[in-house]
Structures are given as structure tokens and as C-alpha cells.
Amino acid sequence: MAAIFIGAPLVTGAIAGEKAVPIPRVAIDVPRGQGMQTAVLAGGCFWGMEAVFEQVKGVRDVVSGYAGGTAKSANYGAVSTERTGHAEAIRISYDPRIVSYAQLLRVYFAVAHDPTQLNRQGPDTGPSYRSAIFPQTPDQKRVAAAYIAQLGKAGAWNKPIVTRIESGRFYPAETHHQDFARKNPVHPYILRWDKPKVAAFKAAFPGMVKG
Q1: From 23, 41, 45, 144, active-site residue
Q2: CA pair distance 88, 189, nearest whole angstrom
Q3: What is the C-alpha separation between 118 and 87, in angstroms, rounded?
Q4: Distances in Å between the alpha carbon of 86 and those of 59, 116, 159?
Q5: Which pLDDT tens digits describe the chain residue by residue (211 residues)?
Q6: Where is the catalytic site (predicted)?
Q7: Distance from the first to the final alpha carbon of the chain
Q8: pTM of the model
Q9: Domains of the chain (ranges plus CATH)?
């Protein structure tokens, strides 16, 4: 795993098999507000995305699913054909008094996936594995767009960021996909691609890890 520097204004992200990159803090944030809030993010296989965000303090629930297509074809068999328009995604329910939307975005870009991979992540290829943010409010859309622009100007990667901002409903995936990494900790895919992401998150953001 690549080295991670703590305590500076930059945090180094580490994706399994990828070179570490510096990630600046988000310049603006969504108003904290009251009550639980929801974020929907896509960044490759939802198993790993879910595994990372389940570790974040203030996150109450993470659901794997599909976003960007219709309810009729929101199932694994159909989505896997790469013709439905869905992305594998996660729905995060979080307490804004504990963790903010901007902090979730920083984890998303720093350790959860590689935002420079177009229609793929690691060994998985196709538009269902694209990097995409599905804002749930106008404020989320504003913050996500600003952060993508901020990262681009910072030159955090030596390749363009391909993360898209999209609209569309979220549909939960089949039961056997929920909490897959937690239920299958020695699955070869989990060991190779997802455990390193979880470890990178814990190293880079120790103050955000659930106790």
C-alpha cells in the first residue's frame, strides 16, 4: 500500500494497484441541516464502495444498488448487459452533525475509487462501473461540481477526471449483494480489490473511522 501522510492539508489516496495521489480538502460544503441526509455515489463495483463507507463515522446505513436507469431493468442480470443505463452505486444515509457531504466526497475521491478510469474500475469494465455522482439536492450538485473543478485545477491526477454528475433514481440491489464484503471477508475479489481500500481509508482518515 502506498504511503499516506496524516495531518497535512492533503491526504494521499490509495486504490489497489494504483499510484497514490494527493487529495485536497473540499473548499465548500452542503449546509449541515437537521436530520439524516442521503448521498448516492457510483465508483465501480458496489461491494467495495459499500465496504469503505460502512466504516465512516456518522454513516448510519449503506445500501448497494443501481442508479441512472429505470426500475424495470434495475437488476443485476439486466445491468450486467451494459445496456440499461444504470451504474452500480451506493446510497449512503448519514448524520450531517457528524460527517458532512464534503467529507464523504473526499473519501470517495481519495480512497473509494479512481476517478480517472472511464467506464471501468480495476478489473471491471463497462458503463455500469462508471464514476458518477447522483446529487440528491441542488446544494449537493453545486458542491460536487465545485469539487471536481477544484481537483482538476489542483492537478491531483496526471489524467483527466471523468466523474460525471448525473440524475436518476436509486434502486436497491438484490439481497445477496448487501453487506457482501462483511459477509464474505475472504472472497478473492474482496481480498484483492476491496480490503486495500478499507485499509487506506482507516490509515488516511483515522478520525472518521467508526469506533
Answers
A1: 45
A2: 16
A3: 12
A4: 24, 19, 25
A5: 222 222 223 344 444 444 345 689 999 999 988 899 999 999 999 999 999 999 999 999 999 999 999 999 999 999 999 999 999 999 999 999 999 999 999 999 999 999 999 999 999 999 999 999 999 999 999 999 999 999 999 988 889 999 999 999 999 999 999 999 999 999 999 999 999 999 999 999 999 999 8
A6: 45
A7: 23
A8: 0.91
A9: 10-208 (3.30.1060.10)
**For 97-145, what is each residue's pLDDT tens digit?**
999 999 999 999 999 999 999 999 999 999 999 999 999 999 999 999 9
Task: Tell me, yes or no, if 45 is annotated catalytic.
Answer: yes
CA atoms of 131 and 162, how far apart (whole Å)? 7
Cell reading at 77: 442480470
**Which residue bears the cell 495521489?**
21
**Those residues with Cβ within 8 angstroms of residue 205's Cβ, 6 or more apart along the chain or in another chain:** 11, 56, 107, 110, 111
Angle between helices 195-204 and 46-53 (to 10 degrees): 30
Q: Are 148 and 163 in contact (CB under 8 A)?
A: yes
C-alpha 114/C-alpha 209 separation (Å) is 21
- Please state the separation of Cα 52 from the chain's center in Å: 8
- Between strands 87-94 and 124-125, the pairing is unpaired
| DSSP conformational letter for 159 | S
Length reported for the chain: 211
Signed CA dihedral, 86, 111, 200, 208: sign only: negative
